[in-house]
Amino acid sequence: MRRAFSVSLLRSNPLLLSHSSGNSAVVALDNQYYYNSSSSSCCCAFTSTFHVYAISHFSTNPNPFKPNSTFPYSSNPTHANLQRLLLEKSKTGFDKLDDALAVFDEMLHMKPLLPVISFNQLLAALVKMKEHSVAVSLFKDMCVKGIPVDLFTFNTAINCFCHLNRVDYAFSLLAGTIKHGFVPNVVTYNTLIRGLISQDNPAEAQLLFTNLIRFKLIQPDVVTYTTVIDGLCKRGHISTAVTLFRYMEKKGCQPDTVTYSTLIDCLCKLRLVDQALGLLHEMTKKGITPNVITYNSLIQGLCDFNRWQDVNQLLSEMNTRNISPNVRTFNILVDAYGKEGMINDAEDVIEFMIQRGQHPDVVTYNALMDGYCLRGEVDKALAVLETTMKRRGIVPDTRSYTILINGYCKKLKVDRAVDLFQQLPREGLSPTIYTYNTILQGYFLTGRHVEARNFFKEKLMLNKALTLDNFTCSILLHGLCQNRFVVEALSFFDTMLSAGLIPNICIYNTLIDGLSKNGHLEKARSLFDNLPLKGLRPDVKTYTMMIQAYCHDGLLNDANELFLKMEANGCLPNDVTYNTLIRGFFHNKKYNEAGVLMDEMCARGFSADASTASALLDLLKSQEQNPALLALRKKFLT
């Protein structure tokens, strides 16, 4: 009796296969592997979907890949030069692809045949050149021609498929590996795990790792653990990543610099900088040396909190450890100083990096231009692009122009922004969706709604190369509603839905706000009520908009009811919500209710904003003797 153990990893249903020694029997039928229940090991069914480079294309002759192969390995001295060349190129890659292909063709015709290591070195050279598809093609030719391969060859091909974003083919090739009598090793599975993570399938990578441990298929090494930790970090599962980190230590597998750097980077991105600094201290205490990547993550994290003193301390520590800052380090500092308006410090950093022999790149100057634009000094940013970058031979990219376009739009100089936009094709650059969004928003900001609508129809709707996102649609809906084109906004919203774009809560907030402010409260209410049917939950902004709309139309009971309902639904009101409803009570002469709500607001740590305070003062001027208002003045304005 045969029993299949299936663990689905991908759409193509490649399955984890465990392999053990002893009397276990793995039976292959129609490219599926089954566990023979009479043996002592268990394994999983593996379904092949190797569509292009199918397993059936491999040699079906008696296995030429085992040690008793009839292929003679070459020890001919005349081959020595070629073998030395292959050894060298396996580390650096060939200068030209044609050279690599010529060598492969020569190897095929050699008598006796070169050893398998030489073919492996050729494939390794192609990988160094990032010619992954060519490497796969040569691997196929080797298999079809019956040229010996080994586990390293299969691992190389699996790695190439992962780099080509075809992890499904990589798993299918895993079946071929076993079919030809090889036992996949830790490198094989590390490659597959990394491939899953690179294709944004960290959950499947974690499942594969779990089953590797469960079935004792391999002894995970530091690369295995670090790869899985990286996948967990990419999903934001830092606590699970740290747990696995401690588990690997417990199992006697010592983390290395890459492991620590992966965790430190994740902690910094989650704004847990002090915990990241704690890991830095731990690794150095254990004698594990941090590298520039480790410090870059920490410097970025500290810059996000403007902890300049700690940044300087880390830079000093790097100097003590003889770790040189790289371009990325300096770019982080330029960007951070620019965002804080400290443009002189940003320029000093660039000057210092040049003195240290580091060359500023386009990212460096983009950060500097962005800093100028944030200060409203867009002409100075333009001078960086037209003068400084040109002098240093640095070619601006699309982001360089988009920064300037955004800067001029914020300064309401849309015509200048459009000039730069039209310059992009002349520079051989293509605008991104963000570039288009910036121009669209600039038109609406300056009240040029006709040009905005034409720009959208002509440049965005007709551009098949662009995929409209929610942000684009939000800009258009907001601009239309703000200019009282509510019917057109609703029509566009319906077009969005028909085109398959799934609106997020921000889109609904924009439309609800526009409808309610343009006298279409019932339509806004209908959209709001139907949010759960769309799989969306109203956020605090959604609730506040509806409360404001109800208050504006004198529907205080509805406003108050919705206020109570939002907290029951797990959405806590913020200061804007409280102030909105309080002003609604003022407007409708519900002063006692306003007083109760103000007490609650203050108890939650919020205070009356300028609009609420102004409304109360205006009421006191017109109704000086109203007891409820006098009580409010005594409580909140003294």
Automatic annotation (TrEMBL):
It holds the Pfam family PPR. Keywords: Repeat. The keyword rRNA processing does not apply. The keyword Lipid biosynthesis does not apply. PPR repeats lie at residues 150-184, 185-219, 221-255, 256-290, 291-325, 326-360, 361-396, 397-431, 469-503, 504-538, 539-573, 574-608. PROSITE patterns: PPR. Transmembrane segments: none annotated. Gene3D superfamilies: Tetratricopeptide repeat domain. PANTHER family: PENTATRICOPEPTIDE REPEAT DOMAIN CONTAINING PROTEIN-RELATED (PTHR47942:SF16), TETRATRICOPEPTIDE REPEAT (TPR)-LIKE SUPERFAMILY PROTEIN-RELATED (PTHR47942). This is Mitochondrial PPR protein. It comes from Heracleum sosnowskyi.
